[in-house]
Design a protein that fits this description.
about 120 residues, mainly beta, Jelly Rolls, four-stranded antiparallel β-sheet, about 0% helix, globular
Length: about 120
């Protein structure tokens, strides 16, 4: 699969602009909200790439060995097989997740989970 970031395009209009994150792709789109102090499981999956875009400040994206503090609107690629998680700081935060490929929650391999899930 080509890098999903290659499909990101911003188009200026008289009223403002829009940013497209997928174009004629098989994908699943979610907005995920992480409560203040919350953390998603440390996980990986084999059958999909994900593109994450922070919608609120204060989130931390962990992708393999990188710990990132994304700016609002900043896209980050999570390739299939990467170990990843998202954490919220003192306030809740949302991010856009565009999953490319076969989306199946059973594809999640949890390596660590603060809530006791396997």
């Amino acid at each position: 699969m080509s890098d999903p970031r290659d499909a990101i395009e911003t188009d200026e209009r008289p009223w403002g602009r829009f940013t497209r994150y997928a174009f004629n792709e098989r994908c699943t789109v979610k907005i995920i909200e992480v409560e203040a102090g919350g953390v998603l499981s440390l996980q990986r999956h084999a059958r999909r790439d994900e593109l994450w875009v922070a919608l609120d400040p204060g989130l931390t994206f962990v992708i393999d060995d990188d710990e990132l503090s994304p700016s609002v609107g900043e896209p980050h690629l999570v390739p299939a097989g990467s170990v990843h998680r998202v954490r919220a700081g003192d306030a809740s935060g949302r991010f856009l997740e565009v999953a490319f490929g076969e989306f199946d929650e059973d594809d999640i391999e949890r390596l660590e989970d603060a809530y006791g899930r396997s």
